[in-house]
Task: inverse folding
């Protein structure tokens, strides 16, 4: 049995009275989940909609609690870290992580960043040792597969694209994925939402297809952890 952790982050719902307002990223992610559940109905499924229910921002007290040795934490400090503990437990339990994200102001929504800030935590998801020289941080988790689904209004954020220099969403997710213990990553991107033209229709159709294809392939594989981090192309 495997565990699929699904994190959505658009502030838009997947279904609205006016379907033009439906979140594109959530619907593409949903396609992945439907295919996965069809093939693996026995698996554990954990869902978080951080767009609708944003995690708390971290605070000075939060940092103070994190850097206090566990056995010396006050009840208030333990309480301060309770959400972080829960979110980290969900990540630790997951074999496959699906994150959907709209592009807001050329990066991820603050709500998703808040989720990462609760999770990327010293001595929980990474440790720090200056004897490692210029790279003192080391992720502590491993063996996970990540699928990211992104949606943007403009286009050309990929390498060599028209807006490559403004594409901060996918590179940021790639960097942070290592702290989730991700060895293999699949990226699905829908673009052109603001143009509402044929390019948009095709981009969404391709993304939905790709989500179903990746879900099919992964749900049939043994999900053996790979030692080398890679961004996979399916
Ligand atoms: C607050 C806000 C900021 C946005 N910023 C950008 C942006 O910087 N670049 C872009 O290409 N699209 C931008 N968009 C368009 C969204 O990325 C696009 O509507 C996307 O489909 C939203 O994801 P969703 O459909 O899952 O809600 C923005 C939309 C909103 C609401």
Result:
């Amino acid at each position: 049995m495997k565990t699929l952790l699904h994190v959505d982050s658009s502030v838009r719902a997947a279904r609205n009275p006016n379907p033009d307002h439906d979140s594109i990223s959530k619907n593409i992610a949903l396609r992945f989940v439907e295919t996965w559940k069809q093939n693996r109905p026995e698996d554990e499924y954990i869902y978080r909609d951080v767009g609708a229910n944003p995690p708390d921002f971290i605070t000075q007290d939060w940092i103070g609690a994190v850097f206090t040795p566990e056995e010396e934490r006050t009840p208030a400090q333990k309480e301060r870290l309770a959400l972080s503990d829960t979110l980290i437990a969900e990540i630790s339990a997951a074999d496959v992580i699906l994150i959907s994200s709209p592009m807001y102001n050329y990066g991820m929504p603050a709500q998703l960043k808040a989720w990462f800030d609760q999770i990327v935590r010293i001595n929980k998801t990474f440790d720090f040792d200056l004897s490692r020289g210029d790279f003192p941080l080391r992720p502590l988790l491993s063996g996970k597969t990540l699928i990211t689904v992104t949606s943007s209004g403009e286009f050309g954020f990929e390498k060599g694209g028209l807006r490559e220099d403004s594409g901060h969403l996918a590179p940021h997710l790639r960097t942070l994925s290592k702290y989730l213990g991700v060895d293999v990553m699949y990226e699905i991107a829908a673009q052109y939402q603001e143009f509402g033209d044929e390019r948009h229709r095709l981009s969404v159709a391709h993304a939905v297809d790709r989500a179903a294809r990746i879900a099919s392939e992964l749900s049939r594989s043994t999900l053996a952890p790979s030692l080398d981090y890679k961004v996979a192309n399916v």
Notes: Strands lie at 3-8, 44-49, 96-102, 126-128, 137-139, 144-151, 182-190, 230-232. Helices lie at 24-39, 60-66, 75-80, 82-93, 110-119, 169-177, 198-220. The chain has seven helices and eight strands. The pocket of flavin mononucleotide is lined by residues 10, 12, 23-26, 102-106, 151-154, 193 (CB under 6 Å).
